[in-house]
Design goal:
This protein has helices at about 5-15, 70-80, 90-105, 115-130, 190-200, 225-235, 255-260, 290, 295, 310-350, 375-380, 385-395, 415-430; strands spanning about 35-40, 45, 50-55, 110-115, 135-140, 185, 205-210, 240-245, 270, 280-285, 355-360, 365, 400, 405-410. By secondary structure, it is α/β, with parallel strands linked by helices. The protein folds into 2 domains: about 5-70 and about 325-430, Aspartate Aminotransferase, domain 1, CATH 3.90.1150; about 70-320, Aspartate Aminotransferase, domain 2. The structure holds pyridoxal-5'-phosphate.
């Protein structure tokens, strides 16, 4: 049980006088107060008030190996004793590119960037150049970073969404380039009929269909059986490419991401978060002829931090850990998550609370809803979000941190003791809920 959040509160108040909004990303302002951390180990975090938490946020996903993993610390130490930035070539670039190539089926060639948002920008430019077409078809509820060209219809209000067969393209931010919507088509996910109709209508203009292969950013919804392959076939039939945004699923759902889990190989894919084991790194992988347009086809691409040695040292260590024994650590994280899911569902049943836990073991999401068939973003609009906020608050008071949208990330180091303690905490939460 938490003692107090007084020191976090005081630091937040101080921060608000210098750091805009007091935090480095607006999504970090959640109740009761943005927590300030001093340390962490394994699956646990310690805040400035001395409270210990079992953490399922993993820094919003990247810390797949948990906190202060000895291999990561060692890798960073080794790199920090050498020049920590070259802006030029070094062998780790090749080592990590070869690893990605070995694990990720679509990655005939690889490029490094620093954030998931940046990786998606590169992918978009590549697919537009390759197909000589301007439009991107994306899905409602899917998030591909905060840049103007893709920040559409991520979480539109119900009244903004428009007809399901032809959703509105909704900009998400004030200040976003208004005509960015002209290059985007939005479709409901997990619906092949509508996808086919929209592709047929825009047949000669769609460069690519882009999606999160598991809809992690709107409640961890799974693709319907056969959907991913059928979407790929449809895209190709209409001369468009298929892009998987695997920033969350990559190196988490399986070593080779959702594409290897489902056996559906996209033309290109973006990766971030887990690939750097917690360090800022993102990756684009794809078919050779698409990727090599960067050097032979006039596609411009840059970045001062591309191939940063510390990030790549961390990625090399993370990928070594994750790939050992045929991906045993990732399988373990997914199994541990399933134990948590079944315990959580049992508790909800005992307390007669309508609850769904969607997703796969290492990335799940709780929904307070009596709807049992959650297949696209609009289904999640019926979730009881006030109850979720109360649940998250009570869980935090009990020393358990989830992502503010109800997501639960499992690292490779969460163990049975963590799950037992978490379920005991959740039992107390349900009793109060
Ligand atoms: C699927 C997906 N794509 C892209 C991004 C953007 O990544 P970043 O926050 O590293 O820019 C995210 C971030 O959460 C994401 O989940």
């Amino acid at each position: 049980m938490i003692r107090s959040w007084d020191r976090s509160r005081a630091l937040y108040e101080r921060a608000c006088h210098s750091l805009t909004g007091g935090v480095s990303s607006p999504v970090r302002t959640k109740a009761p107060v943005p927590l300030y951390f001093t340390n962490g180990q394994g699956a646990r975090l310690i805040d400035v008030d001395g409270n210990e938490y079992i953490d399922y946020q993993l820094a919003w996903g990247p810390n797949i190996l948990g906190y202060n993993h000895p291999r990561m610390v060692e890798a960073m130490r080794i790199q920090a004793e050498r020049p920590y930035s070259y802006g030029a070539q070094h062998e780790l670039e090749i080592t990590v590119a070869e690893r990605v190539q070995a694990y990720v089926p679509c990655a005939e060639r690889v490029a490094f960037t620093s954030s998931g948002s940046e990786a998606v920008q590169l992918v978009q430019r590549l697919v537009r150049a390759f197909t000589k077409r301007p439009m991107i078809l994306k899905f409602e509820g899917h998030y591909h970073g905060w840049m103007d060209s893709v920040l559409h219809s991520h979480h539109p209000q119900a009244e903004e969404t428009g007809p399901r067969e032809r959703p509105n393209v909704v900009t998400e931010s004030v200040g976003q380039v208004p005509n960015s919507i002209e290059n985007v088509i939005v479709a409901p996910w997990n619906d092949l009929d509508i996808l086919e109709r929209l592709l047929a209508e825009h047949s000669d203009t769609v460069a690519a269909v882009i999606m999160e292969p598991v809809l992690c950013n709107s409640g961890c919804l799974m693709p319907k059986p056969g959907y991913l392959q059928a979407a790929k076939d449809l895209a190709h039939r209409h001369g468009a490419l298929l892009v998987f945004d695997e920033v969350i699923t990559g190196f988490r759902m399986a070593l080779g991401g959702a594409q290897s889990h489902y056996g559906v190989i996209p033309d290109c894919a973006s990766f971030g978060k887990a690939v750097g084991g917690g360090l800022p790194l993102s990756v684009v992988g794809g078919r050779k002829e698409i990727m090599e347009q960067m050097f032979t086809g006039g596609v411009v691409f840059g970045g001062s931090y591309n191939g940063n040695p510390i990030s790549l040292g961390g990625a090399n260590a993370a990928l070594e850990e994750l790939s050992r024994d045929n991906g045993a650590a990732i399988k373990r994280a997914n199994c541990t998550g399933e134990k948590l899911r079944s315990g959580l569902l049992q508790l909800a049943q005992q307390h007669k609370v309508p609850l769904q836990v969607t997703g796969y073991g290492a990335a799940m999401c709780v929904h307070f809803t009596s709807k049992t068939d959650l297949v696209d973003y609009r289904d999640t609009l019926a979730d009881d979000s006030e109850r979720l906020q109360r649940f998250l608050y009570l869980a935090m008071e009990e020393g358990v941190i989830l992502v503010p949208d109800g997501r639960i990330y499992l690292s490779t180091v969460h163990d049975d003791r963590d799950i037992e303690e978490t379920l005991a905490a959740f039992a107390r939460v349900f009793a109060k809920l």
